[in-house]
Amino acid sequence: PTPHPLVPQGSLAAFSREGARATEASGRLSRSATVAEAMVRLNVLDRWVPDVLGAPNEAPLVVHVLGADGVECDSEATLRTAFSPLSRWIAASPSPPSRLVIKLIGPSIPPHAAARPPVNLLLRPSPLPSEDAPSPIPRRRLRSATALCIPRPYHEYLSAMAEVQRLDRRVDRPALAVAFNAGIWGYDSWIPTLRSMARWTGRPMPFVITSYTPEEGEDDADAVEDALLGEAGEGEKGGRGEKLLGPERKPFGSRKERETQGAAEGRVYKENFSWQA
Q1: Domain ranges of the chain
Q2: Which segments cross the bilayer (predicted)?
């Protein structure tokens, strides 16, 4: 496989090799690889590069996972399966943030997950820089990587963040938001979330949406455009949103077919098969 700035060769092979083991591995790695590819394609990590004097930026890298539920949040094990690979890859990158925080937010998160304290994704400390490879810029180290589950619709969460900011209190601003297999086209409950994101006045926040099929990706794109048209002023299109990529087939979708009730005839469903931002 072609080298990737974040995903190591061994993990990349899961998305190209034949065989049952590689197919299973692609399913386990798909969420982490999706976020890693989004960080590269959308230049998310650039803002954590040290400044010209080499002073480290202690701001955490915050990722929001929207519409999360028991698939990711059921247990510490499911959270680590989904996101520990990402934490390891970021830890091994040339200039990682000092902290990685993944917040999984959605109204369907089970109560036991909401009561759980933040889960450590980085079970082994990230390595210190090698003394054999001196650099004029001190190499930073990922000191912590955590995931926590928050049972709340995302538009309500954004409103709470805005209120905290209004009171001049510090908030961890998201650098990236992701909705895995969201089915935005099928749920009106996404409309207030999309419109709240369009009105968000904080740092620009890329929003990645994945889908089970190319057709659902197109349907999601139409649903997003329709929702944002409701936020647009006269003569504007799409509110404050800007299309960054897709919908298109994603390089790190699961290769494992998914059994889906009510599946459209002739369609093959795979997690994170298509994406857009």
Answers
A1: 9-50+58-126+140-276
A2: none
